Amino acid sequence: MKKARGVVLESTRKYVILLAPGGEYLKIPTRGRVFTPGSQVEIELTPSVKKVRVFALVASIMLLIALTFTMQVVTAQPEAYLALDINPSIFLSLNKKTEVIRAEALNSEAEDIISSLDLKGRDVSEAIELLLVMAYQMDYLSLDKDNTIFVTLAAPGNYRISEEDLRVSISEQILEMELNSYLMIATTDPREAEEARGAEISLNAMMLGKQMAERGLIEDNVKPDGPGPPPPVREFLKIVQPDKIFEENEFVRGRSDEKRPDHAVGPKQGRLADENKEDDNTDNLEEPTEGGSPDPVGPPAVVPANQRVRGNKSGNGNGN
Fold first, then answer.
1. Is 74 helix (H, G, I), strand (E, B) or coil?
2. How many Å apart are CA 127 and CA 75, to the nearest integer?
3. Gyration radius (Cα) of the chain, Å
């Protein structure tokens, strides 16, 4: 039986119209089969095949529409993925131009952030910057602690952005925000990211669980809550200290321990803002009397957290 090849111009459950290589337009019964406009197909001919006379202009318009639709479908297909875990767990799908085509929240904390931002169409570096700033505004990143940031890029080997590119841009953002943070960046295959997403688990948690098992920090296939999928990243941090997980060069020091900057990304709401108010109240403490001791006007003053001298990593405790 003869076959016809051509570009699909129109397809329904009853028939398909093809533009054949010779310039002919064929209307072929499909018996329920539907083809994608713009695709090239090969179909067996039946006696009922009809040659369709179509004006050249109309045919050109139909072909342009079909090709445009095909390009939109191709552009919307993810080329790579990026997983970001702070405590909020966020999963970004990226096209080949490193633009965000979809942003998904994997926990309730992430939903607060995602709902506040429009990330679609933004370059992944810009999207990460916005996510970090919003995480700070919502108190998930803090000036008062050593933060933890996990990033996994799941992309083909020839992708336009690399692990090192991400390390440089995110480190610069942490320094600009004057935060102290552990930063772990890993790469993997897109299929692994798709498997993790299909199982509704964090890609970073899966990668971290494997790494901790390889280092002997946890037993292989044994999770903090027993058998099953890896728990959120924060559950691993409950059983293993960050300095056991991260390498020394994965700590980004954005500020000294002795000072607390006026933050460049705008005023914060919530816990840290309240602590600042409490710190400001210490300026109103009464001066000591001539006898050398303050008047008994309340409990002893507490040194604010940002004025305390912390020990360095060597553990000498004197801040030198």
1. helix
2. 19
3. 29
Residues 6+ apart with CB under 8 A from 283: none
pTM for this entry: 0.58
> For each successive 10 residues of the chain (320 residues), what is the average pLDDT?
79 82 78 80 69 51 60 68 94 95 93 93 96 95 94 94 96 95 95 86 86 74 50 77 87 74 45 44 48 44 40 38
Q: Determine the Cα angle at 47 with ends 44 and 49, to 5°.
A: 70
Backbone angles phi, psi at 56, to 5 degrees: -55, -40
Structure tokens at 106: 């994997």
What pLDDT was estimated at residue 59? 58
Secondary structure element (H or E) that encloses residue 137, with its range? helix 124-137
For residue 89, list its beta bridge partners: 85
Pairing of the two strands 180-188 and 147-154: parallel
The conformational region for residue 309 under phi > 0 = left, psi -120 to 50 = alpha, else beta, is: beta
Tokens 């993997």 -> residue? 188
Note whether 4 and 43 are within 8 A (CB).
yes
Cβ(95)–Cβ(101) under 8 Å? yes
Residue-level pLDDT at 307:
42
Q: Is 75:51 a contact under the CB 8 Å cutoff? A: no
Q: Rounded CA gap, 5 and 234, in Å?
A: 56
Instruction: For helices 124-137 and 163-177, give the axis angle rounded to 10 degrees.
Output: 30
Token output for 211: 């790494």
